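Problem 3 from the worked examples.
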Amino acid sequence: MSRFSALVLVSLATLAALCLAVRFTIIEPREAALACASPSDPWWCAAREPLVWLFAHRVPGFVSVGAGLRAVLGGGRASVLAATLAGAVGLALYNAELGAVGLALGLLRASRL
């Protein structure tokens, strides 16, 4: 395994774990949504709202597919890294369909680098 492949896998695992932690502690709990709906919302609600908007509009999935296509069509290592990481974010934050496509495209291209 090349150093770049190891970097991709380690980065992928780290980001996926971080996104799942955010999903299960800040986004999904009903208590978090109720706390952010109150007039005196906690400080972390300012970060929660843009995250919810991003996955509601499928942004991580579209980014991963775009980067995956760029990687497959001749992009370099940066495109591969972007596709795999955005795919992991998409998979963890409710954009599984598009995130899986981008992740697969990025991993396919990573195997050829």
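Problem 4, a separate protein:
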Amino acid sequence: MPTLSDFERARTERLWDGVSLWCDRRSQGGIYLVGYHAEITLKMAYFRWKGFLSHQVIDLPQMNLARANAKRLGIITPRESYHIHHINKAMVAANWIDLNYPRLFS
């Protein structure tokens, strides 16, 4: 099962994989992988906000808890959307607002 540290390593690898493809003039693959880097970054931000430590496992039950939190905050998450960027952004933003911090995203 992946830990927060595993997500960090994957995030860094996807960024450099994407940059490498972009430099090789394979922009579509590069854009996809840099987007995946952004997705992992948002996912990590959510779990860090929830107090996860580097060695803690992020598995399906944890993802389901995140989905339940999203529902509580009024964010609709279709079943297959663990990997959709706007859902991850909305989760970070809603938790930020739930903690009474100023809005960063529109």
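Solution to problem 4. The mean pLDDT is 80. Helices lie at 4-23, 27-49, 60-72, 85-98.
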